[in-house]
Design a protein that fits this description.
With 169 residues, this protein is mainly alpha-helical. The chain is built from seven helices and no strands. The two termini are 15 Å apart.
Length: 169
């Protein structure tokens, strides 16, 4: 909802939403409540609830992809790549939960979650700076008028070829 009213906040929101997933997966993985009958089971439960924030990160990545890709063919291809990546990762994820690691709280699965969420955070940060540098370069070349931007907006040119295109972060 914030990204609808405040421009260029998608990467910040996505990065912010990586943090509860990292914290939640650590809470679930490192909690001793799995094996102890007397300990508090609320810690891994809250960690599990915090991991659900991942969906917001995914939605912001989809919004970034849609906002920063121009040209019909390029947009369709990019959307296909994102969808294929999502499907492949959902196919691979169950394989990382190794039943023989139950007593150690499934370290392989949680290490993979922690590594990839941290990597997502860092890649979003790099992406934000990259898009800012592209926008600064285009603004230094000359800011387009609204009329010129409107005229090129309906051409089927890609974001890299359209000099009037400004990337959203």
């Amino acid at each position: 909802l914030i990204s609808c009213y405040v421009r260029n906040t998608r990467t910040i929101i996505a990065m912010f939403c990586c943090l509860p997933v990292i914290a939640g997966s650590t809470m679930v993985w490192q909690s001793d409540s799995w094996t102890s009958k007397t300990s508090n089971r609320g810690v891994p439960l809250w960690g599990f609830y915090m991991m659900a924030v991942f969906s917001t990160t995914y939605v912001m990545i989809l919004a970034l992809m849609a906002a920063n890709t121009a040209g019909h063919t390029k947009k369709a291809f990019t959307a296909g790549l994102v969808w294929a990546s999502y499907c492949i990762s959902n196919g691979i994820a169950p394989i990382t939960v190794l039943t023989q690691e139950e007593k150690q709280h499934y370290p392989t699965a949680f290490i993979i979650i922690l590594v990839f969420m941290s990597l997502t955070f860092l890649l979003l940060l790099a992406f934000k700076f990259y898009l800012h540098s592209l926008n600064r370069k285009r603004d230094a070349d000359g800011v387009a008028s609204r009329d010129a931007a409107a005229m090129t907006g309906f051409n089927d040119t890609t974001d890299l070829k359209n000099e009037n295109f400004r990337f959203q972060t």
